[in-house]
Design a protein that fits this description.
343 residues, 7-stranded antiparallel beta sheet, disordered N terminus
């Protein structure tokens, strides 16, 4: 039996509305809706927009062949079976981490910097072993980016990221058990020439237990801000008691900086619960106004310091100074993604 054309149209419209109503917003959908659009969205584990179907990352085999890894479905988890098939019987590295935003801020192998050259040809940094950080999201296998010392990713020509004293926000989901005291396992805003150009030229999430500059409670690891020429756990250049040692397997780390003399560090368990604010207040002395340059780094310092280690699963950078309320919604989405060590 066929339905009248007007009824068919109405039925289809209702079905479409139902699908829209039940679609799950991703982190960048939440930021965008709140007025803080993503200008960089990186993840090897899942799509960060509900409608995203493009590539998440590229893997490269030892024979030089490459393939892109996409989500299983729009807004979904990475199709790890594509990587497993392509890399079977050989080894693969993660050669590109694609930007899911419309800015095209993809991350590739980091070049040498003022802190020194990397171990790869031409002084570049190593690329991450594509199979070194298996993880599960709601039972679906995926892979993170395991950064061993000497490994790093960068984009020195990023578009739309904060420069000067402009406001920005960022979060990352990380492995809370794989870290060291080296400098510096970062994700965020850095110099565009891989050279230390002075205090305030960076604003990035740092995770680890480096105690050369700032520290928090206990022996770490801590979420801190790398603002260049220092890792900061608050306003004081050294100890800030509000920044706790992190004991979670999966960590949500947040750093954000306003155009006023205000910045914040937040964090929480990426597998359950809500975010806490570890610091919110004035910047350290000498760090206002900021002089951000807008490059994007992962796993290294702004000058290509590459002695740190850590594992990255997902992260974004936004325009504006996101409210705690929208960050709390993003945290709920991260928890709903179901990060786990087994299926």
């Amino acid at each position: 039996m066929s339905l009248p054309s007007t009824l068919r149209r109405s039925t289809c419209a209702l079905l479409a509305l139902g699908l829209v109503a039940t679609a799950t917003a991703g982190p960048c959908d939440l930021y965008d809706a709140a007025g803080y659009p993503c200008v960089a969205a990186h993840s090897t584990t899942r799509a960060l927009y509900s409608a995203y179907t493009g590539p998440l990352y590229q893997v490269q085999r030892t024979d030089g062949a490459t393939t892109d890894i996409a989500p299983l479905s729009a807004g979904g988890v990475a199709n790890a079976s594509t990587q497993d098939s392509f890399c079977a019987g050989t080894t693969c590295v993660i050669s590109i981490i694609y930007d899911q935003s419309d800015r095209g801020n993809h991350l590739t192998r980091a070049p040498p910097g003022s802190a020194g050259s990397g171990p790869a040809p031409g002084g570049y940094d190593n690329l991450a072993d594509a199979t070194a950080a298996p993880v599960y999201l709601n039972g679906h296998k995926a892979y993170g980016v395991k950064v061993a010392p000497g490994t790093g990713y960068r984009n020195n020509d990023a578009k739309g990221t904060a420069t000067g004293n402009a406001a920005e926000g960022m979060y990352a989901v990380l492995d809370g058990t794989y870290y060291n005291g080296g400098c510096c396992f970062d994700y965020g805003n850095a110099e565009t020439n891989s050279v230390d150009t002075g205090a305030g030229h960076m604003e990035a999430i740092y995770f680890g237990n480096c105690n050369v500059w700032g520290t928090g409670q206990g022996s770490g690891p801590w979420i801190m801000g790398d603002l260049e020429n220092g890792l900061f756990s608050g306003q004081n250049a050294k100890y800030n008691g509000g920044d706790p040692a992190i004991k979670y397997r999966f960590v949500t780390a947040v750093v954000k900086g306003d155009s006023s003399n205000l910045w914040a560090i937040r964090g929480g368990n990426a597998a359950s619960g809500s975010l806490s604010t570890y610091y919110s207040g004035p910047r350290p002395s000498g760090y206002y106004p900021m002089k951000k340059e807008g490059a994007i780094i992962l796993g290294i310092g702004g000058d290509n310091s590459h002695g740190a280690q850590g594992t990255f699963y997902e992260g974004v950078m936004t325009t504006g100074y996101p409210s705690d309320a929208v960050e709390d919604k993003v945290q709920a989405d991260v928890v709903a993604a179901g990060y786990a060590t087994s299926s």
